[in-house]
Design a protein that fits this description.
Blueprint: E1 2-10, E2 14-22, E3 25-32, E4 38-42, E5 49-53, E6 62-64, E7 72-76, E8 88-95, E9 99-107, E10 111-119, E11 122-129, E12 144-151, E13 160-166, E14 171-177, E15 180-187, E16 190-195, E17 205-210, E18 216-220, E19 229-234, E20 240-247, E21 250-256, E22 264-272, E23 275-282, E24 289-297, E25 300-308, E26 315-321, E27 324-331, E28 336-343
Antiparallel strand pairs: 1-28, 2-3, 3-4, 4-5, 6-7, 7-8, 8-9, 10-11, 11-12, 12-13, 14-15, 15-16, 16-17, 18-19, 19-20, 20-21, 22-23, 23-24, 24-25, 26-27, 27-28
């Protein structure tokens, strides 16, 4: 696999990333967690940016809305390490001339990650709040919650609590299994699989499948045996990047990244140049961006491959295009929006 880097821009405290499709063209989005901008680059060349918003920033998550011409939802005003009372979700609609309409649709203090899970023609909203209230950075006495609702359009969004009591409710990733979209939510109590209603009058379900402290998680069948492996960051903003495989019904650790350091923050299950990989990254120590691949499938042997050191990524997203994959990286500790283009 060959990987080439392209720096897009300097963006203060760049944190979140994703992509949308507008008039048949891809736009890559990167946004700041500080009081700063969200920027967009239009494909296929991704040269030259335009501004989606100048502020307020505090953007933890960006989620495209299926079936629209580039509309998306995003978190704003999730600022600092404990003062997140004004955090909210906004609806963003692209307008002609690279302009955007931004509308508040939900005020939800401490909202960190969220997603839209599609069932037929319905879109279900799921969100995790990191806590319910905090007096100081170290105060975790008021656990976070899982909030859900049905997204029906750009108007006000109504949500209810599905489950509470999740301390340091930080991690989220989407999992599609058996054709069903599900959300994986993590916190100090472990990992939970959340499934939206499969019929209009159905119910949400929550299933806990891990019971130790986990900051972030992603799932992928990395060895092609038909069973999912799970990559985790442990504990909260933790020092370990681990991969687990279920063996005889029990999760066994089959990999641990050799750089034991504070603040791992990236974990993504995807493919690069057709190869299944977990992408990882950390914001302290050597501040690496890397991927983990199966160098041998039976018996399973995994290896980490360094992409770049000294960049400190906060989040990453992979865009699959004809003949190449684009790893979009929010290199937060170097204030760098970057692309890593992978080819076979």
């Amino acid at each position: 696999m060959k990987i080439e880097k392209r720096t897009l821009a300097a963006l203060n405290s760049v944190y979140s990333c994703n992509s949308i499709e507008v008039d048949g063209q891809t736009r890559i989005l990167l946004a700041s967690e500080a009081e700063d901008r969200c920027l967009a680059w239009t494909g296929p060349d991704y040269t030259g940016s335009h501004t989606v918003w100048d502020g307020p920033g505090g953007t933890m998550s960006i989620v495209p809305i299926p079936g629209t011409n580039g509309e998306f939802l995003a978190v704003q005003k999730f600022f600092r390490m404990f003062d997140w009372e004004e955090a909210k979700v906004v609806h963003v609609r692209p307008l002609p001339g690279e302009k955007y309409e931004v509308t508040d649709i939900l005020h939800l203090p401490y909202i960190h990650r969220f997603d839209l899970l599609t069932v037929g023609d319905r879109h279900y909203f799921i969100a995790g709040t990191l806590a319910t209230q905090k007096a100081t950075k170290e105060d975790w006495s008021s656990p976070g919650k899982i909030w859900v609702g049905e997204y029906t359009g750009p108007g006000p969004l109504e949500v209810t609590v599905l489950q509470d009591g999740i301390t340091q409710n930080h991690g989220y990733s989407r999992l599609v299994r058996d054709g069903v979209m599900r959300g994986l939510v993590t916190g100090r109590e472990g990992a939970f699989e959340v499934t939206p209603p499969q019929t209009p009058d159905g119910q949400w379900t929550v299933r806990q499948f891990m019971d130790w402290p986990i900051s972030d998680i992603a799932a992928l069948d990395i060895d092609g045996d038909g069973e999912l492996e799970f990559a985790t960051i442990e504990e909260f903003h933790g020092q370990y990047f681990r991969i687990y495989k279920r063996i005889a019904g029990v999760f066994k650790k089959v990999f641990e990244h050799p750089e034991v350091t504070e603040f791992y923050h990236v974990v993504v299950g995807t493919t690069l140049a057709g190869e299944p990989v977990f992408i990882g990254g950390c914001r302290r120590g050597k501040q690496q961006l890397f991927y983990v691949r199966a160098k041998q499938k039976a018996p399973l042997a995994l290896e980490a491959v360094l992409i770049e050191e000294g960049v400190g990524p906060s989040n990453a997203y992979v865009l699959h295009e004809q003949g190449r994959d684009i790893l979009v990286a929010a290199n937060r500790e170097t204030n760098e929006a970057a692309l890593y283009i992978a080819t076979a």
